[in-house]
Amino acid sequence: MHAEAAEDLAASGADALSVAQQLSAAGRPGRGWARTWLIQTAPGLTARAPQLAADLLRRELDETPSGDQTWGGLTASLVWALLAAGSYEEAARRASRALTVMTDPVRKAETFRVLARAQISARHNDDAIATIRRALASADLPRQWRARMLVVLAMLERAGTGDLDAADATAHQALTVAEEAGDTFAAAHALSALWFTHGVRRDHAAALDYIDRALRMLGDDPGHPDLRSYALEVRIFTLQNLDRWPEAELALQQTREFAQRSGISDRATWVTAAVLRYWLGQWDDALAELNSDDIDAPGLRYAFLREDWPALLAHGVAALIAGRRDQRTTAAQHLRQGLALPIQILTDRENRDFLVAAHALALEQGGDTRQAMLRLAEILPRHHGEMTLIHQWLPDLVRLALAAGDKRMARAAAQACQAEAAAETQPARAAAASLRCRGLLRSDPVPLGDAVAHYRSLGPAVQLPAALEDLAAVLAQRGQEDEARAALNEAVGLYEDLDARWDIRRADSRLRAYGIRRGVRGRRGPRAASGWEALTPTELKIAAMVAGGTSTPDIARGMFLSRRTVQTHISHILAKLGAKGRVDIVREALRQGISA
User: Fold this and answer.
1) Whole-prediction pTM value?
2) pLDDT, tens digit, 9 for 90 and up, residues 493-551
3) Exposure pattern of 576-593 as b/e (b: 16+ CB <10 Å)?
4) Which of 130, 153, 162, 544 has the highest CB neighbour count under 10 A?
5) What is the C-alpha separation between 466 and 361, in angstroms, rounded?
6) CA–CA separation, 256 vs 233, rounded Å?
7) Using CA atoms, how far apart are residues 248 and 191, in angstroms rounded to an integer?
């Protein structure tokens, strides 16, 4: 009955997932129609339900002789589904076996790419490079696929060997071949590879130019949504590196607008958005992006290149916010989960910096300043080809080293930050961080004052109170008590806005050593834990929209958030108000004078 229902649904053009569920319930392979249908619908079904797609394709393929005309299509579809489901070893094994008998050049090219991606996902980068070179040596490799293989090789050269010149040369070759073949996807992907190498060099202006060229090339073509989404996200990253924070926020909105228009999942933006909101001081919004139930969810990747769910980064951001808020149990939970993840390849190292900073903070909170310093120092040196923005953490390393009495480490951190600043073709974030390092190392308020002015003018918001705290400590050392107290009061006021209770305690402790305490106006008291006053600015906006009858999807569209993030905010609103549903939110909004 299930098999018949599946065939009838497929014939009527029903939703692929409904057909697949009936096929699965049948518990046995379908007839010939099922094989053809699975090949046709595999891309969409894999995107929505990769494990279900893999199970059905495996079942059909195991009953299909290699000489059957559907065998190649089933095999290619299965290895993609296995990859999407996270079954990397099986995907690599089946792809390798298929390549020994495949004759169709396009099918072979697709399977070579899946094999390389499975090897990358399994952290076997050297094997992936060998696979790509083997594909490029194939006499029958279509020109379009040659360009695509070259792009993947460029990415692997950057991550595997750190040879940026070789990666650039390969990417430029891929771009030439792609343009000659008229392959927009490969050309835009090659430009994204050049974005990466220039970002690693800290030539962020050139990196932005490359990614903007890629976006112009892709245009509004509904094809290749993954690549366009990726390009939009890395543009956010580059705008941050250029200290163009309002533009980065706008780019996040554009990324989510594109996801809404194209109907693709915006799940890949969650961590990107959380990191941006961390630096902007929007910590509650960052945590809403990182719903803890989803941090370790499998399957997040771009179809054109392995891009696993960056759980290292997600746990790191969540742990660092919790630690700075002195929520040590929550921080410890994220640290346990994050530190259990393997650090095997460069991509892992690039995504671990927030986690390292959070772990160092936990050690400092436990009173082990030297171990905190040594832990944070693990970000040094930046490896060849590595993107990690180490300058973000180096002022804290200088501070910890000085507190531990290790002047040598403090000098090494300051020198590393100066090297990062010198590499910036346009002075921006690393230059400001270097000012902080220099001021701390030399107990000089002038560069620290310059850093404060930079953050006050350009941002990011999270760095301003930290720079003010450093300035207050140095002024106190020099006996300038009034100026030190003013800087401390401003720093604490900004920390209170973040609910950064640990930072407040640390700042008070640093200044207390010089006999300086805050003025009575500096403390505004802890944030309310419940009731309307406990709602964050974003939660207030959403509560008002709920009161006005706006649906969750419309709130998401209007605020450029994912539906999941809006649902998380609504859950927080309900918890803070002690409410059970939307009606209670409306009732409380009316009590607060907000009309429906």
Assistant:
1) 0.85
2) 999 999 999 999 999 999 999 999 987 554 455 667 788 988 888 889 888 888 888 98
3) bbebeebeebbebbeeee
4) 153
5) 14
6) 10
7) 20
